[in-house]
Amino acid sequence: MNSDSDIPLVVHMIANAHLDPAWLWTWQRGSDEALATCRAVCDIMDEDPEPTFTRGDAWAYEQIRVRDPELFGRILGHVKSGRWEVTGGWWVQPDVNLPSEEAILRSAALGKRWFRRWMGVKQIPVAYNVDSFGHGAYLPRFIRKSGQKYYVMMRPQEFEKTLPSSLFRWQSPDGFEVLTFRIIGGYCHGGADLARHVENAVAGAPRGVGHVMCFYGVGNHGGGPTRAAIAWIKNHRNFAPGVELRFSTVLAFFRAVEKHRRRLPIVVGELQMHAVGCYSVCAELKRGICRAELAATECENLLSTVPPASRRPYASVLDGIWEKICFNQFHDIMGGTCIPDATEAAIREVSSAETDAEKTIHLLLRRHPPKCVSAGPEGHRLHFVNVIDRPWKGLVECEVWMDWRPWRHRLVDAAGTLVPYQIEPPASLVMEPGLTQIPRLLVPMSLGAMEHRILGIVPDDANADAAKLQAAATLDKGCFSNGAVAVRFGRPGLMEVADVSAGAAASRAEIDFACLDDNSDTWSHGLSRYDGPARAGACFSDPILIEAGSLRSTVALNGTLGRSRISVLASLEPGRRILWFTAKILSVEPLSIVKLRIRLPGSIWSARHLVAGGWIERPLDGLEYPIHHALRAETTSGTIGLILPDSFAVDVSQREIRPTLLRNSIHAYHSSNRLLQTTPASFGSTPETAGRFGTDDGPHRIRMAVAFGNDATEEGLLSELDRFHHPPRVWDDFLKISRLARCEPAAE
């Protein structure tokens, strides 16, 4: 039975009850089950002094503390006895591919502080994400920064990724290390006979260590160890010659194997892949979580500039914001695998978190704005605040209320120097006689970290605005160019983008939108790539020049993508080797995935992906990978970069880059054998699909950019990503005059 027959083997029997707070049920049922599970476990532990139990996730304990203080007290008693193990210590077990580094660290920090305050647990050395759908390359760094040094995971499992041992030293690309155990077979076993389950654990035990873990207990919807399973373990303590079963804890296992650390194999980089469909399904929720993360981070940045005595009321609000965000980063919620009611509840709560963050930012900027180092003249003013801790440079859009008066003004800085701007179409469409459109300005701005700058709005009867200067780009015979980048349009869409500044050696890319068949389940179980046939390609009308200013020019295309509607706005700025575009898609194609296809004339020989925590190089294997919104590829004809602020997955081969824009599956559809008998044409009319809507039906706004040459460096791509994610906050006010003054009749 023991593969190392000369070394006694201790099988640490880990009783647990994996609980998804939301999945095939809503969070309310998850809260109920947290209490039911822990009450049942307490009953068993009260009557039997031997069994142990392992439970993580601060959120579940908080449900118990608030709803049933008596049960919470019983749990505290078992924790003090050493038989009830608090492990993991994060707010929930999140997806650890898609959230930002800051969000993952915040989940750990929230949990750590909660356990210290309410349970008196000061140290939780083991991070614990047993069901998360893959693990990002820099996660060891996040774990070590959170004060932990051990890790337990399970997915990808043995049949999905080969590892040198179930126990290994996992290192991030920058050298941070956590001793990691991959659960063998599964984290749940609800049966009364554990023989086969234990045999699998013994067979997968790390060689030469003498210890292995075996997880048991009813799980997913809670549950825990059964009395029958506990009795079976007692009756099989001496499971086989040299094999002892022992009620134990995760930390006891790691303490026992720590002395073997130096001789264990090293694994560097990400642990993928499992459930690749979860990188992109339910895009509205994913984008909402991303926006809430960004807003919460901006809150923290602004709060750091506030005097310490004034921070407390804002800090408590910020904690509540992060609790909402971190809960909805739970792997089944953010992964998009929940039932519709649970997903809709998550969207509402994430929107609430973003709204709370925006309200807090508003108060901080108005009550405690960062000190202004460059103020314009008195009168009507525009404030610009960079809310990130690094420089920001780009174009800022803002609207200025002028009481329906025509815009006859200019912008000046503190020295009285004119600041260029461009007039844009406003967000509203007011066409009443006698009313002038609200001026929308496009202003170039370069701000230092957390810089606050004020420009003056001063009358200018000549109205010499920047829009009368040479256009940033021109559209001529289907070619849209700013002299550095040229875009040639054709009926299939954006046909060719070229870096014409490089002359004959120009980098080129053919770009189009494709809708592919995808009949896999919500998770895409069993898939690692999307190579289904193309159901439809985008078909556009001729491009229309809708913006021809000196700071930016834009063309619009309208068309179809199968049965879905698609509109694209493509923009160029003067002299820059970057094409920005926004796709607006009204998605109605069921069981499909929408890819942006970027085909290159030469070969790609290297692709570096931005993931949470940094950049990594991945093979050019065409597999679907999670991405943190940027990619840089070296090709035989030059460098190309992608900025993807609204996308979360991509595949790259030697000739093609394909970011995933949308994936329209079925909510909580679980079928690894593709049992659903339906086609796109029959969707909604078969017994299985009647009354169901796709996960990504409806309108979507997806922003992207393609960069070439020096604009496609890693530093440059990160800067461009900041332009999308963290535009400066802008507002106008009046200093030493009233807005009503301009409404008074002119003095004679």
Written account of the structure:
This protein is α+β, with helices and mostly antiparallel strands and 748 residues long. It folds into four domains: 9-89 and 124-274, Alpha-Beta Barrel (7-stranded beta/alpha barrel); 278-360, Substrate Binding Domain Of Dnak, Chain:A, Domain 2, CATH 1.20.1270; 372-469, Sandwich (Immunoglobulin-like), CATH 2.60.40.1180; 474-725, Beta-galactosidase, Chain A, domain 5 (Distorted Sandwich). It is built from 13 helices and 39 strands. The protein has a 19-stranded antiparallel β-sheet that branches. Strands 12, 13, 15, 16, 19 and 39 form a six-stranded mixed β-sheet that branches. Helix 4 (101-118) packs parallel to helix 5 (139-145) and helix 10 (312-327) runs antiparallel to helix 12. The longest helix has 28 residues, at 340-367. The model has no long low-confidence stretch (mean pLDDT 94).
Shape: globular
Given helix and strand content, the structural type is alpha+beta
Q: Under the CATH scheme, which class of the largest domain?
A: Mainly Beta
Residues in helices, as a percent range:
10-25%
CATH topology of the largest domain: Beta-galactosidase, Chain A, domain 5
Fourth-tier CATH superfamily name of the largest domain? Golgi alpha-mannosidase II, domain 4
Q: Assess the beta-strand content as a share of residues.
A: 25-35%
Biggest sheet details: 19 strands, antiparallel
Low-confidence segments: none
Number of domains: 4
| pLDDT averaged over residues | 94
Q: Report the total helices.
A: 13
What distance lies between the first and last C-alpha atoms, to the nearest angstrom? 104 Å
CATH architect. name of the largest domain: Distorted Sandwich
Number of strands: 39
The value of Rg in angstroms is 29 Å
